[in-house]
């Protein structure tokens, strides 16, 4: 699910909607309200929603939803993953503790 709008949101929707995972199509949907993302496995939070990031993340806390954004510092502010830069020099920041507590990753 994509919450909000920005340049990357449209690109993600176009690219991901043409993909499959384990032979099943990837469904991408846009949401305008955080209530509309419940039941999603992954939520990309667009730059347009960063003013509400704290409330969005609080609403999703304790759910098995991977939260990510391309806003630098998003992981430090409570999200699970942020990325910045342009390939091949892009940079990812992951909050392992948050991802693990939401059941999105496990460590041996």
Outline the fold blueprint.
Layout (H helix, E strand, L loop, with lengths): L1 E2 L3 H10 L3 E2 L2 E2 L4 E2 L10 E4 L7 H8 L5 E4 L11 E4 L6 E4 L1 H6 L7
Parallel strand pairs: 1-4, 1-5, 5-6, 6-7
Antiparallel strand pairs: 2-3, 7-8
**Strand numbers in spatial order across the main sheet:** 4-1-5-6-7-8
> What share of residues is helical?
10-25%
DSSP strand (E) fraction? 15-25%
**Mean of residue pLDDT values:** 84
Low-confidence region ranges: none
Following the backbone from N to C, one meets helices and strands in this order, namely: EHEEEEHEEEH
The total beta strand count reads 8
How large is the count of helical segments? 3
Form type: globular
Main sheet characteristics: 6 strands, mixed
Please give the alpha-carbon distance between the first and last residues. 29 Å
SS-derived structural category: alpha/beta
List keywords for this structure.
108 residues; alpha/beta; two-stranded antiparallel sheet; 8 strands; globular
Can you describe what's shown?
This protein is an alpha/beta fold. Helices cover 22% and strands 22% of the residues. It has three helices and eight strands. The chain has helices at residues 7-16, 53-60, 96-101, and strands at residues 2-3, 20-21, 24-25, 30-31, 42-45, 66-69, 81-84, 91-94. The strands form two sheets. Strands 4-1-5-6-7-8 form a six-stranded mixed beta sheet, with no helix packed on it. A two-stranded antiparallel ribbon has the order 2-3. Helix 2 (53-60) links the parallel strand 5 and strand 6 (66-69). The longest helix has 10 residues, at 7-16.
